[in-house]
Amino acid sequence: xxxxxxxxxxxxxxxxxxxxxxxxxxxxxxxxxxxxxxxxxxxxxxxxxxxxxxxxxxxxxxxxxxxxxxxxxxxxxxxxxxxxxxxxxxxxxxxxxxxxxxxxxxxxxxxxxxxxxxxxxxxxxxxxxxxxxxxxxxxxxxxxxxxxxxxxxxxxxxxxxxxxxxxxxxxxxxxxxxxxxxxxxxxxxxxxxxxxxxxxxxxxxxxxxxxxxxxxxxxxxxxxxxxxxxxxxxxxxxxxxxxxxxxxxxxxxxxxxxxxxxxxxxxxxxxxxxxxx
Length: 277
What we know:
Blueprint lengths: L12 H6 L8 H8 L7 H13 L5 H17 L3 H14 L4 H13 L3 H14 L4 H13 L3 H14 L4 H13 L3 H14 L4 H13 L3 H14 L4 H13 L5 H11 L3 H9 L3
């Protein structure tokens, strides 16, 4: 049960940074800091944002954006304390910047402090109630706390605001699986894959739906496709092992053993999440 997550970048980021004159930082470094489309590696984004921050050319909201973006890059690297420092600095510069609250909420979530994550996502939504991503992130936090009704409600709100987001369809698919709404989950995963084919996490979730619906052959096909894209996923390997076992495939034990070598409690986690043994 791995959720797809992203960090917040508002549409005004590029305009806010480029509106200021370039000083010691180069246009390339500004582009790295903005990271439109999330195509820049974390180290490059950190370098770009550091140059922007140290240039002395920015203040207020523009500088808050740079700190918030660097917060997201540190988080991508798994350096959560440095990420937290940057998000806190961003919010000192601009307490009304919804994006920094979402990014800090993501850091709290990675630290498994869901209550603080929910508080930050809630503030982001108060400041910007039309931000579909903030609802998606808050739904993930509700899910981590086991509050499935609130999670589904927020995924619904997110999709009303942005009905073309494959990530949120994938996340809601997984949430619906956990409350045993398997047919509805399958519909969401199908919609996500229509928009974003060959996505390992979504294929794994759809395989779980097929498995729960008793369609082990279709589940196996999706687990195989997911494993080709992400061969080290304990969730995929374990699910494939269960599907093979139901189909009488002698290689089932090898997949289950491989999954347990990656995550020793995967069997209990899988059953707890989806009610599937």
